[in-house]
Amino acid sequence: MHSLKGKTVLLTAGPTQEAIDPVRFISNHSSGKMGYALAECLAEDGATVLLVTGPTALQAQHANITTFPVVSAEQMYEQCLPLAVRSDIWIFAAAVADYRPKVVSDKKIKKKEATLTIELVKNVDIAAALGKFKKPEQLSVGFALETDQETENAQAKLLKKNFDLIILNSLNDSGAGFRHDTNKISIIEKDKIITFDLKPKQEVARDIVRYIGEKVHV
Question: How far is the C-alpha of 55 from the C-alpha of 71, rounded, in Å?
Answer without folding.
Answer: 6
